[in-house]
Amino acid sequence: MLLSRHQVLARRERDPERLERSAYLLLSRIDTQGPMSIGQLAEAFGLDTSTVNRQTAALLRCGLAERVACPDGGMARKLRITAEGGRRLAGDREVNQSCLARVVADWSPEEVRELEDVLIRLNRSAEALEGRYWPRTEEDDTPSP
Questions:
Q1: d(Cα 9, Cα 115) in Å, to the nearest integer?
Q2: What pTM was estimated for this model as a whole?
Q3: Alpha-carbon dihedral 122, 92, 101, 15, rounded to 10 degrees
Q4: What is residue 96's predicted lDDT score, i.e. its pLDDT?
Q5: Alpha-carbon distance 145 to 140, whole Å?
Q6: 31: closest CA among 99, 98, 100, 79?
Q7: In terms of Cα–Cα distance, which of 58, 1, 53, 47 is closest to 24?
Q8: Do the Cβ atoms of 5 and 19 come closer than 8 Å?
Q9: I need a labelling partner for 8 at 20 to 30 A (CA). Which of 20, 39, 98, 99 fits?
């Protein structure tokens, strides 16, 4: 919690271009899964559709996402990341990774791997309890060597 809180507070102070937490999470999910409807996003995060509607409206206003026809031919419109949204998401990910790299800079490679393994297990256990799983590729299913 401390690490997460520190990153959230520091992000806006250092660079107002950084994404809000909700924007980062929504864009990350769409980036991982592909275009999604508001209903799909609400279900994925266990949120009310009105909450997700407000959050996605902000993404649309900022040009970080756009509405597109359902690729499967359905009636629902879906949200997909724009080039600007992808650029900003990639920038935030890079900053987050560099911040974490600084935190563990004096750790041994074995300690970093151990932390990674335990965090993967923690995330998977939380997902199992909630019954909501983050989509992953096969290569994401195993801890890094």
A1: 23
A2: 0.80
A3: -130
A4: 82
A5: 12
A6: 79
A7: 58
A8: no
A9: 39
- The pLDDT tens digits along the chain (145 residues) read 566 665 655 555 567 778 888 999 999 999 999 999 999 999 999 899 999 999 999 999 999 999 998 767 667 789 999 999 999 999 988 888 888 888 899 999 999 999 999 999 998 999 899 888 888 765 565 443 3
Token pair in block for residue 43: 């279900």
> What's the gap between Cα 73 and its chain centre?
26
- Residue 145: the pLDDT is 35
Phi and psi torsions of 68, nearest 5° = -135, 160
Question: Other CB atoms closer than 10 Å to residue 33's CB: what's the count?
Answer: 13
The alpha carbon torsion through 100, 25, 11, 105 (nearest 10 deg) reads 0
Considering Cα of 92, then 116, then 44, then 52, what sign does the dihedral take?
negative
